[in-house]
Amino acid sequence: MFDLRYHVASLAAVFLALIIGILVGVGIADRGLLDKGTRRLLEDRITVLQNRLDNASQRTAAADREQRAMQSYIKQTYPVLIRNRLRGKHVAVVFVGSVNTGLLSAVERAVTDAGAQETRLRALKMPIDVRQVDARLAADAKGKSYVGNAKLESLGHALGEELVTGGDTPLWNALTGELGERVLGGSKAPVDGVVVVRTVPPQRDGTSRFLLGLYQGLSSPGLPAVGVEKTDTRPSAVDIFGKSGLSTVDDVDDPAGKLALALLLAGAPAGHYGVKDTADDPLPPFPSTLARGG
């Protein structure tokens, strides 16, 4: 992680433990159990450790200033850096749970600022009602093979593929009433990438297996698939997104996060980006092929 604060916190804990041990030694010396030379050595050691902690704190302050400078730079240059990154591309947005207007606004801002079009939006009812889903699938000729708890992951995978590839979407056609809380845009046109937002707590049992398959299906055609969240999202979905094969952006509410999302959708290397300790870097790299697009 690029932020040194966590490193300094661990250093401080180590130094504090050492200093406590040394102070105990000095206390023993005060009672006459150590000679003056040993006591002086312990006191000098305290001074050295304190200086090291002070230096680490100074490095953290410098790192914080550099981070703020970087964020300010990105904020000022954001319109130029993001322009035309996704010109002519089509993006799907999937909410796992109800639509959060703030998150939707952040995602749409990144997509439109980069020159792309939001082709469709799907918000899914959570948790899924497995009985209703099975009943609807059993009544559909093409859905019968997905009936049953053991098929939930496969069902999610197939729905994920249908959502990004477009064309005929028999499973979505059959299950929109059971799964769709909000449905905008048609399903025929293929998309060039997909953004996933989770607005519900981690799910369990059948819904959990279904979502695992869905995430994997969204990324399976080889198109960019990115899970996003805000800097204050708790609990974070980054871990499950990553395990399912999605790239992630954990600060989509900031200009840097919007830029990271646009870069990933444009084909930057997959990974985990943002400001949390799960991030690989603040931003994806800027390949020359992408830079020319701006």
Task: Report on the architecture of this protein.
The chain has 294 residues and is of the alpha/beta class. It has two domains: 5-80; 83-293, Rossmann fold (3-Layer(aba) Sandwich), CATH 3.40.50. It has helices at 5-30, 36-82, 101-113, 130-138, 152-165, 170-179, 205-219, 238-243, 255-265, 288-293, and strands spanning 90-96, 117-124, 180-184, 193-198, 225-228, 247-249, 272-273. The protein has a seven-stranded mixed β-sheet, sandwiched between helices. β5 (225-228), α8 (238-243) and β6 (247-249) form a beta-alpha-beta unit. It is globular and about 90 Å long. It starts with a helix and ends with a helix. Residues 1-6 and 289-294 have low confidence and may be disordered.
